[in-house]
Amino acid sequence: MPAPQGPLHLRLRNALKERIQSGELPPHSSLPGERPLMAQYNVSRATIRQAIAELCNEGVLYRLPRRGTYVAAPKFSATLGELVGFAEEIHQRGLVAETTVMSLTEAPAEVAEAEALEVAAGSPIVRVERLVRVDQAPLFYDRTLLPHSVGRGWTPAEVSSLPLYTLIERRGVQLGEGDQTIEAVRATAREAARLQVSEGAPLLRVRRVTRDVDGRVVESALAHYRSDRYQYRLTLRRQR
Amino acid sequence: MPAPQGPLHLRLRNALKERIQSGELPPHSSLPGERPLMAQYNVSRATIRQAIAELCNEGVLYRLPRRGTYVAAPKFSATLGELVGFAEEIHQRGLVAETTVMSLTEAPAEVAEAEALEVAAGSPIVRVERLVRVDQAPLFYDRTLLPHSVGRGWTPAEVSSLPLYTLIERRGVQLGEGDQTIEAVRATAREAARLQVSEGAPLLRVRRVTRDVDGRVVESALAHYRSDRYQYRLTLRRQR
DNA sequence: GCCTTAGACTGGTACCGTCCAGTTGCGGCA
DNA sequence: TGCCGCAACTGGACGGTACCAGTCTAAGGC
After folding, report:
1. Cys-Cys link to A238, which of A214, A222, B83, B205 (CB 3.0-4.6 A)?
2. pLDDT grade, residue B219 (50/70/90)?
3. B225 within 8 A of B197, measured Cβ to Cβ
4. Is residue A212 a contact partner of residue B27, using CB atoms and an 8 Å limit?
5. Phi, psi (5° rounding) for residue B54?
């Protein structure tokens, strides 16, 4: 075989994941002990423990001290507390999104925009407005603000073909946390026209402020989803 | 000194946390390297790395490979991907909720209810309906279904004074994951009356299926929030 | 047949060592 | 003065070992 690349613990992690997904290790069955696994995969215990720890963090496995390591029940959502962009999420659900860039401008920030991005008023920023369709019909409309350092030089072609988070990470930005608020609103006349719903139809309004690992605002987004076509879905885990 | 107890890596973890919280290590400042820390705390590098890895998972620190370990910006939300109940969440926000139990019944499950709880149709289940007010005005109405083994024997007094999750955990149930879907809907005449809004007002509908660590359904809830008084808020972290 | 108990597990904690590949800063050379 | 290369340092990835404290089981005593 062509000698799989990458760190051992990652390869081990994927190997175990496959054994679980293939059904060889069904939910709630116990994994071999760490010492048997050492012999099986010919790696040190530290490596085994690292791979298992990662899978526990992902929720794929769980440990019962002094009893064993077990396969967790399958997850019901791929996104467990993970920050994903609008377009990324659509893609993760296996849908094909068509993105139309309505506008893409670089300009000095107005007061409200500067506040949202936590930069000085008048600083250069980038504004992106997009309409995303799935299966022909509009799904959501969003307006995203980015600091000039992040969004500078993007083309409509890039923005319509790649998730914003991909473009952001390409700039070398390490994404950290994203703070979202979700509310229900009535569609205004303008929103109704854009999303092709009747005025007053219920919409999901999602605001998100994304920061890099240093806490600097990287993106401030406001999206309106057609509620007849979209449900916000997330999985949360109880802390021990 | 009285020899602090517990595993070394936990003590180290807390020691570092205190140095951060005291302001000795401000946000975005770099931690000493792992090797200097070994000498400083007189522990092995593996222990240092374990403590740092835990703090990274918590979001207190972040690493830049081959550059260093840094103090993260303080968190913006207490609930980072944590599963919390409706009442718990209100409490966490520092609000005082008045809960009115509209009904509390034990009965055989109807087909749809049995499906939601993943039990056999006709199995005994418990239904709870509650109206929660904050500052006099209604905030949300919710209907929760529970398997008989979980909700059996609860009194209206208990249900109105304690979060459901507290009651569930008192039964010895280990909560695992909760799957939520959030959508925007128009208030029906009945919902409008209960929540004291006009008919057709936008509401946030939150459905949640909570499971224990073994994957068994523990609770199936459906809540309607007044959108003029409530925004769903959550913080997510980007996976590495 | 039942109960006790010893030993073979389990994961948890902690130590040691080694090598690797980027980053960074500093000193020296042009 | 300015550029460049190298040495020092960083976290990442492995390997090995040892001991601990509970759990589970199966053998042995009653």
Report:
1. B83
2. very high
3. no
4. no
5. -65, -40
Q: What's the CA gap between A105 and A156, in Å, rounded?
A: 10
Taking an 8 Å cut-off on Cβ atoms, the answer to whether A177 and B230 are in contact is no
CA–C1' gap, B17 and C13, in angstroms: 20
DSSP A179-219: EEEEEEEEPPHHHHHHHT--TT-EEEEEEEEEEETTS-EEE
Could you tell me whether strands B97-108 and A124-134 are parallel, antiparallel, or unpaired per DSSP bridges?
unpaired
Instruction: List, for residues B159-184, the tens digit of each pLDDT value.
Output: 999 999 999 988 878 788 888 999 99
Q: What are phi and psi of B223, to 5 degrees?
A: -125, 145
d(CA B25, CA A231): 42
Token pair for B93: 């926000």
Alpha carbon of B140: minimum distance to chain A alpha carbons (Å)? 13
Chain A neighbors of B225, CB-CB under 8 A: 184
Low-confidence ranges of chain A (pLDDT < 70): 1-4, 74-80, 239-240
Three-class secondary structure of residue B90 per DSSP: helix
Q: Is B6 exposed, middle or buried (0-12, 13-18, 19+ CB in 10 A)?
A: exposed
Cβ A33 to strand D below 7 Å: no
| Per-residue pLDDT tens digits for B82-91 | 788 888 888 8
CA distances from residue A197 to A189, B44, B181, B188 in whole angstroms, order as listed: 9, 63, 22, 19
Quote the CA–CA distance of B23 and B163 in Å, as a whole number.
36
* Other C-beta atoms lying within 10 Å of the C-beta of residue B25: 19
B50 three-class SS:
helix
| DSSP result, B184-226 | EEEPPHHHHHHHT--TT-EEEEEEEEEEETTS-EEEEEEEEEE
Alpha-carbon distance of B41 to A217, in angstroms, equals 35
Lookup: tokens for A202? 């219920």
